Amino acid sequence: MQTKTQLFPYFQPIVAVASGQIVGYEALARQYDGKGKVVSAGALFSSTELDAKQRTELDRQVRWQALEKFSQLADTQSYLVLNISAAWIDNLRQLNALPTLRMLDDLNIDRHRIIVEISDAHVDLHKLKQIVRLYRKHGLSVAIDDFGAGSSQLERVIAIQPDIIKIDMSLFKLAAKGGIAGDIMHLMSRLGKRTGCRIICEGVETDEAFLFGLNCGAQFMQGFLFAKAEAEFKPTGLYEQHIASLRSKFLKQTLVKVQKKISGINTTKALIYKLAEKLQDDFNLNELVSWNFTQSGVIRFYLCNNQGDQISPDFNFNENQWYTDPRKISFNWSWRPYFFQLLALENCGDHNRIVTSERYRDFETSLLCKTLSLRLDSERILLVDTVAND
After folding, report:
1. How far is residue 226's CA from residue 172's CA, in Å, rounded to a whole number?
2. What is the per-residue pLDDT across 214-250, written as a single tens digit (0 to 9) for each?
3. Which of 220, 233, 352, 359 could form a disulfide with 200 if both were Cys (CB 3.0 to 4.6 A apart)?
């Protein structure tokens, strides 16, 4: 049975943060509704009114049109992102007979300019890995779409090690508000840096969202802030001035925040050096009340020996008062990076440095914290837990 539904491609620009230029487009399927208005055809591909063969036919129809138009684009450096449903992959009988590769050959398109974006969560991972290897063998890149939407896609990320991860717009918008979603975005950025995987933020609709994406380290942006999907391609440098102004705004805002943060860190470190000097002799905990601990963000300090065993109680600071908690005496912290990094620096001849941990969530206070470690004397190490500034 042949379907008479007519689909056609629209193209949404993807911009690079560093250059401000349009570096690629995502091809999206469109159709006319009953009033002649152009609407998304996304729902059509999950419609129960069409069988799998009809949906596959429509998918390939719009994919051919997108590639045909892309082959005529004067900018030969930009790339095209093609959405391919994981369901289509599951339906393939012959893995070597990939229709996209045939289309690229017929249109004489450089395969290195094509990114296959795999959507949907349910797919045979073994078959997916085979097809991804085949795509890469022929020069195509592979992206995972809608990361953070629906079920977890970490298993798929591990399985195919994508060249690109596109952050789902719902996760991105949620992350812009902070909280754990923001932490996930930062983790994705770190993953991208470590693996060479590029991160694209979708659904960027406001200047604030763009600035948040910069803060997360995203290299590419896509969304209504620049353009909706449209029928025609755009001049490569159309958004350069806009993006340059956003980068300038980001630098100005971030510089103020970082300077304030550095000033606070320096104040805290000076206080820790002063505390270390005081701890060389007997001290009265109540004497510390007059020190500026409230502004420093210090919540506790304690002492360890060179083996990492805690040899003092926790000296906790809360509401301008100090109190002791002996429960962690004899706990061992030698496995914590801030501890063995301090020893490693000393063994390399770097002494009297304060070593700072990464941020973590403190179990007792639920505060986002960092631990600072400093050599107190030949047998003791001072460790100070402080509130981490964002």
Report:
1. 16
2. 988 889 999 999 999 999 999 999 999 999 999 999 9
3. 220
Residue 99 CA, chain-centre distance (Å), reads: 32
25 close to 11: Cβ distance less than 8 angstroms: yes
In whole angstroms, what is the distance from residue 86 CA to residue 119 CA?
Answer: 6
Rounded to whole angstroms, the Cα distance separating 41 from 310 reads: 63
Would the pLDDT of 152 be above 70? no
Q: How many CB atoms lie within 10 A of CB 132?
A: 21
Three-class secondary structure of residue 219 per DSSP: coil
pTM of the model: 0.82
Q: In the structure encoding, which two tokens stand for residue 202, read together? A: 């979708």
256 vs 267: CA distance, rounded Å: 17
In this structure, the number of other CB atoms found within 10 A of the CB of residue 73 comes to: 15
Coil, helix or strand at residue 87: helix
> Which domains are delineated in the chain?
8-234 (3.20.20.450), 258-387 (3.30.450.20)
Most confident of 136-150, 273-287, 317-331: 317-331
Q: Which stretch of DSSP H or E encloses residue 93?
A: none
- Cα 322 vs. chain centroid, distance in angstroms? 39
Q: What is the pLDDT of residues 41-90, one digit of tens each?
A: 888 777 777 777 787 788 889 999 999 999 999 888 999 999 887 666 66
Give Cα 243 to chain centroid, integer Å.
20
**Element holding 34 (H helix, E strand):** none
Residue 293 token pair: 């601990």
Distance CA(84)–CA(157), nearest Å, equals 16
Please identify which residue in the block is written with the tokens 């496995």: 335
User: Could you tell me which residues come within 8 angstroms of residue 248 by beta carbon, excluding any fewer than 6 positions away?
Assistant: none
The label of the residue with tokens 């045979």 reads 124
Nearest alpha carbon to residue 222 among 83, 119, 110, 81: 81
What per-residue confidence (pLDDT) applies to 149?
Answer: 57
